[in-house]
Amino acid sequence: MEHFQSTIVSTSPQETFDLGKKLGQTLRGGEIICLYGDLGAGKTVFAKGLGKGLGVEAEITSPTFTLIQEYECSTKGLQFIHIDLYRLAYPEEAEIIGVRDYFRDDCVCLLEWPEIIEDLLPPDHLQIKIEGSGDSPRVISFAPASRVQHFFEQ
To answer: What is the rounded (10 degree) CA torsion for 115, 2, 137, 43?
Structure first.
């Protein structure tokens, strides 16, 4: 995993959502975001905010059982692809379901539990780690890719 360059403390689910939304508003397409965190850390809350910031009008749900959810971004002409790799046992399974097919400039791709496919990821991806659970604050750390560096320079 990369060296994390920026850390933010979120004291509520709403703050986690708002951080995702703020990031989503800055994305232009082609970004690959790897989201790390234990069960209950707030990955889905962050994903919902990211989708809202991208202009997704549909309800964003966790793709734990479907593996991949595709959403249209009404304001940016992009697709938001939300992938949950928790149930995969082997990296080859990611190839079979076509994960890399979504690494395109007309998509923003969010991967939960990306550890299993780290060797398949392009080098320029954003890593986000969410630590904490229950009612405790979340520590959200970023290792930004060059495609999203502008977000961290604000």
So the answer is: -30
The answer for residues whose C-beta is within 8 angstroms of residue 59's C-beta and 6 or more apart is none
Q: In 94-107, which positions are buried (b, 16+ CB within 10 angstroms) versus exposed (e)?
A: beeeebeebbeeeb
- Using DSSP's 3-state secondary structure scheme, residue 152 falls into helix
> Can you give the three-state secondary structure of 40-54, one letter per residue?
CCCHHHHHHHHHHHH
**CATH homologous superfamily for 7-152?**
P-loop containing nucleotide triphosphate hydrolases (3.40.50.300)
Mean local confidence (pLDDT), 26-42 = 93
CA–chain centroid gap for 73, Å, is 15
- Whether the predicted model's global pTM rises above the 0.85 cut: yes
Q: How confident is the model at residue 123 (pLDDT cuts 50, 70, 90)?
A: confident
**CB neighbours of 126 closer than 8 A, spacing ≥ 6?**
31, 32, 33, 34, 142, 143, 144, 145, 147, 148
Decide which of 151 and 87 is more confident.
87
Two tokens at 118? 């780290």
Residues facing residue 111 across a β-bridge: 34, 83
